[in-house]
């Protein structure tokens, strides 16, 4: 069992609540052009973006949304779509490679929902100066992400999460901020 209280999903598929995407949109400047979630799972992020009139699409390595999104790996979806930006909750185990792949094929930004602990580690400390990490938006409210494809209800979150925003052209230290409280926003 993970320290989040949920059994580990084989593909690292965990379902983020829509409110955390809406909170990101409240603190980030508007997205222009196509936004891709290359690890969209059931499509929560894509649906939240579209509900805010953002041109968004998704893909995943498995069909998790009854044929709504193409089935392909994240690298292939980036090549096929050539998005301006990426907003995603990627598998944690490939987060650095995912970010680098997204930065190579986008023009604007890459926003990834990851454990706040992603900031830790000697190797990652050496990696961060080589990527354009512009902003870290910490969620004061713990985000509960149950494994996808189950009927396990969301519990109170046990892990601190943040949106990490990598923006092309950014130099210098990243800005640290907090997501607004948007409880009750689920559409």
UniProtKB/TrEMBL annotation:
This protein's name: Methyltransferase
Lineage of producing organism: Bacteria, Pseudomonadati, Pseudomonadota, Alphaproteobacteria, Acetobacterales
Domain of life: Bacteria
